[in-house]
Structures are given as structure tokens and as C-alpha cells.
Amino acid sequence: MAWSPSSHPIFVSSKPRHRSKQTKLQIYRLSRKRWEEDVKKDMEVMNLKLYLENRSIIEENEKLRKKASLLHQENLALMSELLLQKH
User: Fold this and answer.
1) Could you tell me the pTM of the whole model?
2) How far apart are CA 55 and CA 57, in angstroms?
């Protein structure tokens, strides 16, 4: 005999299924654990992005310090030259 929908009726219960308190607690703990893992991953990604941004800022600051130092040296040389021309 071949399978057919009419030969295998589907039974649907009108009563809602109730989970035991222990099962609900297990589901809650699993959900919380997954949530905590997601938060941890999000924080790690955010920390990495902030670290990279900070490194970029530090590199830019170093470039600006070098540029400022060169400008200061140039300023001193020009002031010295100006003083020599006055005498």
C-alpha cells in the first residue's frame, strides 16, 4: 500500500504545550549564554576598531610633531637670519 495523506491523518492538539519550569530555565540559560557570547563578540569587534582608530591617531600625531619640529627649526633659522641682517 502506497503512502497517502489520507492514510496518515495529522492530529493537532488544541491544548497548548506547557514546558516544565526546569525546561524554561534551561532555555533561559541557553538564551542568556548566547546573548552574552554575542555581546562579547560585539565588544571584541568594537575594541579592535577603537584600537585601530587609536593607532591611526597616534601615527598622525607623530607626523604632525615631526612637521611642527621642522617648522620650529625653520622659524628659528629665519629669526636668526633676520637678526643678522639688522646688525
Assistant:
1) 0.57
2) 5
Helices (H), 1-87: 21-86
How confident is the model at residue 2, as a pLDDT? Answer: 61
Q: CB–CB of 15/9 below 8 Å?
A: no
- For residue range 19-69, list pLDDT tens digits in order: 788 888 888 888 989 999 999 999 999 999 999 999 999 999 999 999 999
C-alpha distances in angstroms, 39 versus 4, 28, 31, 32, 44? 48, 16, 12, 10, 9
Distance CA 31, CA 38 (A): 11
CA distances from 28 to 2, 31, 70 (A): 44, 5, 62
Torsion of CA 40, 41, 44, 50, to 10 degrees: -110
Q: Cell numbers for 63, please give them.
A: 607626523
